[in-house]
Write a structure and sequence with these properties.
The protein has about 180 residues and is α/β, with parallel strands linked by helices. Helix content is about 20%, strand content about 35%. Bound molecules: inosinic acid and magnesium ion.
Amino acid sequence: MTGAAPIERVLFTGEEIAARIREVAAQVTRDYQGRTIKLIGVLKGSVFFLTELARHIGVPVKIDFLGISSFSNRSGAPGVVRIAKDLDESIEGEDVLLVEDIVDTGFTLRYLLQTLAGRSPNSLAVCTFLDRNSRRIVQVRVDYRCFEIPDRFVVGFGLDYNQLYRNLGYVAVLKP
Ligand code: IMP
Ligand code: MG
């Protein structure tokens, strides 16, 4: 279902996404044997990915969300990020897996990692659906990634353009 989105081309179909998420979930399951994972989703983009990932993780999982506002200018100057909706529960002593929709410049992720690390989790790792490494400005650690993508704006499976197209079941490049 395209929702009449102005799509140039599909990068990953729903089937490809489902298969890849299962692989990453299996990897996470192996790495966290014997532990409970606190999945932290960054609203709103990561929601579709997080639910699909969580369904296929084979160790106990807790879920929490945080919302951020970022102000960055189009020239790529450092983005200012702040927490607009904080977590409901403490992460002290928890094995936290931060779930992102996409890591682009890395500013958002760096801010989130610094903030969460200051709250004394037992461990802190990052799982991103998409990674656009070619645009990275600040180096951040990404532990799990589903797909590397080219330097094109994409929508679908949680990613939006002006809040639209998050509900597409695939990832696509928008027409310019
Ligand atoms: P950065 O890594 O701090 O540059 O920011 C990443 C954030 O920018 C993501 O969480 C998305 O909200 C947004 N973003 C970056 N690239 C795209 C894209 O291609 N489509 C939709 N949102 C994007
Ligand atoms: Mg985001």
